[in-house]
Amino acid sequence: MPLPLFLDPELEERFVRDGFLVLPLLDAGQVERLLRFYHGLDRGEAPKPAFHYSMDHPDSTYVDRVMQELIEVIGASLRPHLHDAQLFTASFVVKESHPHGFVPPHQDWSFVDESKFRSATVWTPLMDVDMDNGALGVIHGSHRFFDGQLRASPAPQCRSVLSEHLLTLMPWLDVHPLPAGHALIFDNALIHGSPPNVGEGARVAAGIGVTRADAGLRHHYLLPGSEPPQLETYAVEREFFTRFGNGALSELCDAGGRPDGVEAIGQTPNGLPPVSKEKMLELVSSHPRNRLDPVIEEKARSVAAHFG
């Protein structure tokens, strides 16, 4: 049984059972401070696709500056809810207005030894969010679907167990409208995604990675050219994530390289056996809170038709 993350036993019970919970976290002044900081940033020549996040910016100094600000502001409100915690990633998570900007259902990387610890993302919108401007959706209990799975980088080179089921899973997302400053805190193994932002402006949120202070951080990386595909595991520090977002790791993989400055501690065959559509739907239906949402289903059909 992994060590608990939350001090409050009721919060911990909800987190373990459902894979997520919602907390009021930031006050209006903190939200305004982070929005001013975000709008004062200079992204330079970095691209701005329909969905982008600061951790993938090519300038590690930019990434670190954002991390420091978010950890200072959000960490002050977050730490009282947690056992002695380390905050190891922090990023602005932005969804531009775009009718087909669906973030498909996915799981985050594995950051710790999940047999002993759990890690979570603290997703905090800096404006009110709903179905129309890209609120986050989750599949209840999905953090328990694939115990023991190592969720690795980079995408799209490292295919996951969900890769063939994106359209199957989209309509099952339970989208949570939230007021600015409320946080949806979810286990990194939880399946989550978001519908397109069809509002007038960008949806700006903050994402903070958190685990216990005594958990060693890990990263799993698909070894280029390995056959059968192998994952190499590294012991890392927070600084690793200022240098290596998914974009940098994807380029490194295409070039046949490995991350530098980190200790390799093992190799593992990549992935789990394929899961059929029927089995995936059986897993989703196993949690009583999961329901197919016809509104998202129609949005998913529109996106699928657009991309063929």
Kindly state the percentage of residues in helix.
Answer: 25-40%
Strand order of the largest sheet: 1-8-5-10-3-2
> Helix count, per DSSP?
8
Taking the alpha carbons of the first and last residues, their distance comes to 44 Å
Strand element count: 13
* Cα-atom radius of gyration: 18 Å
- Overall structural class, as computed from helix and strand content, comes to alpha+beta
Oligomeric form:
single chain
Model regions low in confidence, pLDDT < 50 over at least 5 residues: none
Shape: globular
SSE ordering: HEHEHEEEEHEEEEEEHHEHH
Main sheet summary: 6 strands, antiparallel
In round numbers, the mean pLDDT is: 95
Share of residues in strands: 15-25%
Which helices and strands, and how do they pair?
Blueprint (H helix, E strand, L loop, with lengths): L8 H10 L1 E5 L3 H12 L11 E3 L6 H19 L6 E11 L7 E4 L13 E6 L11 E2 L27 H4 L4 E2 L6 E6 L4 E3 L8 E10 L4 E6 L7 E7 L3 H4 L2 H9 L8 E7 L7 H9 L8 H14 L1
Antiparallel strand pairs: 1-8, 2-3, 3-10, 4-9, 5-8, 5-10, 6-7, 6-9, 11-12, 12-13
Helix pairs in contact: 2-3
Structure commentary:
- By secondary structure, the chain is α+β, with helices and mostly antiparallel strands.
- It is built from eight helices and 13 strands.
- The protein has helices spanning 9-18, 28-39, 60-78, 166-169, 240-243, 246-254, 277-285, 294-307, and strands at 20-24, 51-53, 85-95, 103-106, 120-125, 137-138, 174-175, 182-187, 192-194, 203-212, 217-222, 230-236, 263-269.
- Strands 1-8-5-10-3-2 form a six-stranded antiparallel beta sheet.
- The N and C termini lie far apart (44 Å).
